[in-house]
Amino acid sequence: MLEVSAAMSAKVLERFPAGAPRGSWPAEEYAAQRRAQGEPATVVMDLKSDAFLVVVPARDED
Questions:
Q1: In this predicted structure, what is the pLDDT of residue 37?
Q2: Which H or E run includes 46?
Q3: What is the DSSP letter of 38?
Q4: Pairing of strands 42-46, 10-17
Q5: Is the pLDDT of residue 2 over 50?
Q6: What's the pTM value of the predicted model, to 2 decimals?
Q7: pLDDT tens per residue across span 15-44
Q8: Residue 56: what pLDDT?
Q9: How many CA atoms lie within 13 A of 1 on its CB side?
Q10: What is the distance of C-alpha 41 from the center of its chain?
Q11: Are strands 10-17 and 51-57 parallel, antiparallel or unpaired?
Q12: Do residues 26 and 4 make contact, with C-beta atoms less than 8 angstroms apart?
């Protein structure tokens, strides 16, 4: 997780395993909820851990 944050200058909000049931997009749904609350959440794939990460841009104070 630290590598992703450092490389992307992003804060990881949540992790979701890539093996969700077919037709289920929990990371996308979570990111959409965060965007509805005004946060610029994005979903990225962490290939090393085979997980989807919901991230937001890192702020200077993070």
A1: 97
A2: strand 42-46
A3: T
A4: unpaired
A5: no
A6: 0.78
A7: 999 987 888 899 999 999 999 999 999 999
A8: 95
A9: 10
A10: 7
A11: antiparallel
A12: no
